[in-house]
């Protein structure tokens, strides 16, 4: 009977070897052969062979120097594959089959290795604090669950641990003549690692009596590697032809592949995605965001995954991002990324939150029908992540125009109300309350949130519900009831900074402006809460402006408003700023043209058109003194001529003609001329 696989166990201690061999009985087939390599560095005699019973077959024991023993065993049994194993290793049922399947998928000159909780580095299995592995049964059950969730997952690595080394027998035979004597799998690995492609087979798991780590600088790996993609992107979409191109284009420079799961588009979304090189899966919608995202994830092959929506773009330095993913912390499962949510008309202060948008494909999956999260594939917890400071996701889906066009609030509410894919009833209710709040139904948001507030829910869900109920009550004009929620927040684990922010909002609702300013000062320069939502300085400035206007301190209001506008945010209509300026001691808009960011010019001039014509005329006059803005100014002026008095209309008409543009009502619209 031909030997398919040779398992060479390097003996260091008889007691260890006994445990190792015992663990192999359920995983070694009749076509496999186990050989114990017994070191005898004192003798130069021929290797000494002996046979022993091992379950339904025999195990060979050969004594001599390791290199010669391994070479002779490979020649003697002529296997197709070989696994070199330290005797401190405890294997599981599918460890060997998993490695064999992985080896079939990689080039000839490759080394494949398993995962293990006993290893530090890229192969480590992260355990939850509650995981108990006290008996062989515990080991077996954990390994089975771990393997089932990672079938077929393989990743290319620059360095690996050496407790188990699995490769094609012919490849190892070709290497051994150039290998000096070795006394452990580590020394064998160090002798051959530069000649191997190295892969981790994620469904294969072993344990070890000792922690192992290869202490080798990653840059020492010089072999010609066949790398699997470092970074894949996955998306779910439907009828996104207005946004899909920008989203995919933001991914092209940083990812090797983009997988799009389409849930039933009727427009050009699929065509556009494919034209940009994305792999598109034409699927269906099951009212479950995590399920849909996992369909896209299942077609990705990258070591790392980045996920965005069609109304988002990824902003990063591609080189820096890829360097971090390739050489960063090996034990991280993911990175939380800052998400900048544009809201209102686009001039409002963005809302920021952090979420895990980058994660290891082998470790994580999606969970949650709505507001889906990245979850460990096997452990009942969210991904082990750290903040990513080298990438930002820009989200446009909360703009009023997008929310209305796509009916996002109603869609989210439908999913939250109907889905059964929640781990806890309270989790479902929190998402439902947030969806009601987003849709503008504050009364139902309050009612559903209160069900969680006055329950024995987990602290994290209860804290979220307190915040939703608080904001809904403020929106309903119920400050006394909001005060009740604030008191609950102060008795909870909600951060002190956010408690102060809630106190500021309540004080503002009750027109206690000085108290509100004091509370805002307690928040400091910003705050990031446990749920990933961030209070940024721009939000605090916006609240300060409201307070100063409430106190009729227009000088301070204008000063802060100009600072806010210079940062790219402005939570008030331009008409209100003009009013404040006119009530301030300066009474001039001259500074306005200097502080408007170039990225916001379109929005600012769109608001100019909404002003009374006489007010718009004054604003445009202030902007006209800045040469770089004159095209915008003249284009806007051309649209308000009919509403101006005769003298001012003549001034703008002369300026437009002097610049070589046409007047509305003539051959062409001046806007067409200005923008051509």
TrEMBL record:
The keyword Cytoplasm does not apply. Keywords: Transferase. Residues 232-315 form the Glycosyltransferase 2-like domain. InterPro entries: Glyco_trans_2-like, Nucleotide-diphossugar_trans. The keyword Cytoplasm does not apply. One of its GO terms (molecular function) is transferase activity. SUPFAM superfamilies: Nucleotide-diphospho-sugar transferases (SSF53448). This is Glycosyl transferase family 2.
